[in-house]
Amino acid sequence: MINLDRLVNVLGGYGARLVGAEGLRRRELRSVAMHDPTDDTPPLGDAFLAVGVDSAAEAVHLAEQARATAVLLRSATEPGDDVRAHLRERGLALLVVDPAVSWSQISGVVYGLVLEGRETEAGRGPSDLFTLADTVAAEVGGPVTIEDRASRVVAYSASQGDTDRVRRATVIDRAVPARVRERLAADGVFAGLASSAEPRFVPGVPGLGLGGRTAAPIRVGRELLGSLWVVCDAPLDAERSRALREGAHTVGLHMLRARVSSDLERQVESESVIDLLEGSADPAQAAGRLGLLATGLRVIAFQARARTEPEAAILHLFEQVTTGFGWSRPGRSTLLGTTVYTVLPCGGDPSPAVEWVRSTVRGLPDQLGVVAGVGGTADPSGLPASRQEADECLTLHGQGVPGAGEGRETRGLPGTGPGSAGGAGPVVYDDAWHAVLLRRLRLVAEAGRLPTRNPVMDLVRHDAEHGTDYARTLRAWLYVHGDLGRSAELLELHPNTVRYRLRRMGAVADLPLHDPQARVAMTIALAALADAPPDLPAGHGPRPA
């Protein structure tokens, strides 16, 4: 397992800074949880990703509910003294990451380090099921076996020598003895595991040499992958039952990850796609190896927004997009952290990409909560830029930016969108480029890299101090290119009131309204405000990002 110090050192290269008790650096991280505002039950994990959370105080509160050691937050500002004091009191670490780094990058690093990891001192990485079995055994206080649905042993913890005769035979033969399996089936044990998510105590059967057991189903989504068994003489208490249940959940994710990465063709394809997305030394050759065209490529990014099991949803999606013989599939895909990327040849028109996304999501069980972003068209050397665009389009879901089918009337694409019946389709860069641009400007502004001494900021400060509405008035006037009548209509004011405001604004700030370049600069400054002026009435002006 990696410790917090390793995570801090790696994320430091992405602009992360540690806030909190330095003594936590040696704390081991075994699991990852991601904030999902639609889920009433908080996820549990040692490293908590506060996705979509703006407040450090709220992120720390959510991390406490997740029983986390470290919480990761994207922010350009330092947490206040009250948050720092709370971190020290609760024994939590806060990693503040530069907002210019996407959640896709952050989650890819965290999931890769914590779940996939690097080799431990014993020579086995955390993705090794034997290592996971050792971890679960230590937490529940008894020897553990991980078994598949046919009661074959997939992995087991160390120190099985003092267990009962059946357990020793199970480990040696790598399977539960037939007579024991028949007895467990007759007693309804397997049926109970298939129908419940809770651990189940199985009393011993001395005549078979079987001691007491507690078993937990290993389930990912609705699919039962196997079961986790711990030797115990009596039912586990609440704390150890929780540890066994969480261990079964983590084992299930690792089993599913192992399954989707076991195919050699998938591995080779995935590595080549990563090479292209991160900027290959020879992109044309890398694309040729994958059978991709030299032009008209787009990157499609998928993420899960499921109410439960988001990690399982994205793994199911990866299986879906890589099913079948590689050369018969239109795209080439990889899984990075919690994002599935597909490079799809579709040319300048994004409609084929949108329809492919829709058909892919329709093939998932029960329309799992998946959202998608489609990057702009590119040749192989431009795929890193298309990937960034796809990632940014992902972030625009739920921010008022229309998905495919809502933007261009000419598309007329049928079917439901990712995530829910009748929902919007993927956000396409061709339609959302302006929202992406404004988002980048706001990130730059939040990081303090835009000039703050300008007429727009003078008006914003005056509005805050005196309760005026000058910034919104200027925005309306700029949006209609100085048309006084239309400005008044947007603001629902009399033209004389707008004229009076403009005159008063000139006394507050130096407004070069007759300079074309200055007007463009003021428009950009208004759009880049982290706290934008109140929206104009619906249906008027550009769509806000």
Helix content: 40-55%
Q: Which class best fits the helix and strand makeup?
A: alpha+beta
Shape: elongated
Strand content: 5-15%
Sheet with the most strands?
Answer: 5 strands, mixed
Q: What is the rounded Rg? A: 28 Å
Low-confidence stretches: 118-127, 407-423, 538-545
Describe the strand arrangement of the main beta sheet, using strand numbers.
2-7-6-5-4
**For the residues shown, what is the average pLDDT?**
81
Distance between the termini: 41 Å
Report the count of strand segments. Answer: 17
Q: Total helix count?
A: 20
Describe what you observe in this structure.
The chain is α+β, with helices and mostly antiparallel strands and 545 residues long. It has helices spanning 4-12, 56-65, 81-90, 103-116, 129-140, 165-173, 178-186, 189-195, 238-261, 264-277, 283-289, 310-321, 351-362, 383-395, 429-446, 455-466, 470-479, 484-491, 495-508, 516-527, and strands at residues 2-3, 17-20, 28-29, 32-34, 47-49, 70-74, 93-97, 144-148, 153-156, 200-202, 213-220, 223-231, 297-304, 332-336, 339-345, 370-374, 427-428. The radius of gyration is 28 Å and the shape is elongated. The two termini are 41 Å apart. Residues 118-127, 407-423 and 538-545 have low confidence and may be disordered.
Short description:
It contains 20 helices and 17 strands. The chain is of the alpha+beta class. α9 (238-261) packs parallel to α12 and α10 (264-277) packs antiparallel against α11.
